[in-house]
Amino acid sequence: MRDSQINRVKSALSEGKTVNSVIAFNEWQITRLASYIEQLRRKGWPIISEHPDNQRIANYSLPENWQPITGQAKQADIKKPLNPAVQRLLKTDHN
Fold first, then answer.
1. 18 partner at 20 to 30 Å CA-CA among 27, 70, 81, 83?
2. HEC profile for 29-88?
3. What is the CATH number of domain 2-66?
């Protein structure tokens, strides 16, 4: 259940929507939105918190045009050639 709840939050934010605890509860029955937001922040999501008119309820959103790194992008990073200095260190015989 928790995975599907955090995925709903991720999906809404990725679509450019603003999410708050009222929306999360009414649409997805999520009562722990702040916890999910914190988990995403720890994973590198640059989530913006806004409190309009000094309200106690935070509105969460992502910067415009931001997209999370996909599995394919992570794989592409792995295939990057090594820095020449690192290549030389790896080739050095330490015997």
1. 70
2. CCCCHHHHHHHHHHCCCCCEEECHHHCCCCEEECCCCCCCCCHHHHHHHHCCCCCHHHHH
3. 1.10.10.10
Give the dihedral sign, CA 53/55/61/62.
positive
Can you give the pTM of this predicted structure? 0.69
- Tokens linked to 81: 């050639």
Q: Are 62 and 49 in contact (CB under 8 A)?
A: no
pLDDT of residue 71: 61
Type of residue at 54: N
The token pair at 90 is: 């790896």
Break the chain into its structural domains and give their ranges.
Answer: 2-66
Tell me the two tokens of residue 56: 């106690």
Sole residue written with tokens 């592409």: 76
The position carrying tokens 């955090």 is 6
Q: Name the more confident of 18 and 92.
A: 18
